[in-house]
Amino acid sequence: MKALQFSVSVPQYIALKTLGRLARRAYYDSPLATVHLVEVPEPGLLSPDWVKLKTLVCGFCGSDLNLILLRDSPMASPFTSFPCTLGHEFSGEVVEVGGNVTGVAVGDIVTAVPTLSCVTRGIDPPCHSCRIGKPGNCENFAGGNLAPGMFTGICRDVGGGFAPYLVAHKSQVLRLSEGMMPEEGAMIEPLAAALQTVLDNRPQEDDEHVLVIGGGVIGNLIVQSIRALGIKCAISVSEPSPFHGDLASKAGANHVIEDGDTLGHAIEATGARRFKPMLGGDVLMGGFSRIYDTVASRETIDAGLRSLRTGGVLSVVGISRDVMSDPTPLWLKLQTIKGAYCYGYTEVDGARRHVFEVAMDMVAHGKVDVASMVTHRFALDDYRKMIEVNLSKSRHQAVKTVVTY
Known about the structure:
The strands form five sheets. Strands 3, 5, 6, 7, 8, 19 and 20 form a seven-stranded mixed sheet that branches. A six-stranded parallel sheet has the order 11-10-9-14-15-16, sandwiched between helices. Strands 2-1-4 form a three-stranded antiparallel sheet, with no helix packed on it. The protein folds into two domains: 2-114 and 151-187 and 370-404, Alpha-Beta Complex (Quinone Oxidoreductase, Chain A, domain 1); 197-339, Rossmann fold (3-Layer(aba) Sandwich), CATH 3.40.50. The protein contains 13 helices and 20 strands. By secondary structure, it is of the alpha/beta class. β14, α9 and β15 form a beta-alpha-beta unit.
C-alpha cells in the first residue's frame, strides 16, 4: 500500500536548512525532501490487544507541516523514530480485532487517541505522568515494546492515517457517537488538544478578558471550547487574515485584532496602562488575564507577556523554539508560562473521563462545530498540493485540510 512517510538524517537536515531558505519546496518536492509517498506492507496486529483500521479521513496538522519543514527543535528527536507514516488526526473503520479487544467490533467507525503511552507500550507499572492522568506527557515515549514515538504518526512501528490501513491499541480506540461523520471523527484530536488547553488554563470569572493569538484551527477551537464550557468571559483573537478572523468571530470571539497591535488593543479592551522603558518595547500594567498563544514565536510571546496582567497565565500552545527574549514581565507581574501539549483525563460531573470523550460529546450535542472547518479534501497522491495549500491558508481560504479515502 502507499503511505506518506517522513524521514531525515543529520546531513539532510543541514543541507535542507541551507537550501530551504532559497526554495521552501525543497522540503517536500526534491531529492532531499523529508516526505515521500512510498510502498509499504499493509500492517498486521502487533498483539491480541490491537485493532486494524481502514482509514476513512486523516487531517493534516500544523505539527505535520512543522515536522516536514524541520521547524521543530531537535530536542524532541529522541522521542521520534524514522521512517514514520504521518497522520495522527483520523477516523477509520474497524476491519480486524485482536483476541483481547472488547468494546469495538468489525464494522465500527472509530477515532483513536494517538498517544503512545505506557499502556500502549506494555509498560507496567505506568510512569508518574500516566498515573496522574496525563498519558499525553508519558515519561516512557522511548521505552517498552515500541520504537520511540510520542504518538501515532511519528513512530516507526505504528503508522498513521496517511495510509489506507493502520493499527491502534485497544486503549486508544473510541467509537464515534451515533450520527457523527468520519470527517468529524478526524477533528476530535485537534478539538481535544484545544479543549485540554482551556481546561488547564480555564477562565474563572465571566469578567475576565482573554486573548487567543492565532485564529487557525486550534485558535478557533479554543474559542469554541471556552464557549462550549459555558464561560462568558470576553475573548479577543489576534489574527491578520480577515477570513480566519471572521471565522473566529462566528466561533464566539468578541474582538478580532487584525493589525497585530496586541498592546494597543489590551489598553482599549482592559483599561491597562502603558509604560515606556528607557530602551525596548512598552510594557503594560494590567491587561489580559489569560493568553493562549497558538503561534508561539518570539514576537508573539514577547507581546503576550507585556500585555498580560499581574498573576496572568500564558499557555504556549504553538510549537516553536528560541522564543524567550526579555523575561522581565514574568517576574515583574508574577506571571506563569504554561506548556500546552496533548490531552489526558479530567473530572466531569464527578466522573473521570478522557478529554477525547468530552470533545466527542461536545460535537455530538452541537456545542462545537468541527464539520464546517474541513474546507479542503485531497487524495493521498496529491500531498504536495495539500502542503502548498497549508503554506498559504489565507489565500486559499483554508482551515482544515484532510486526505479522504
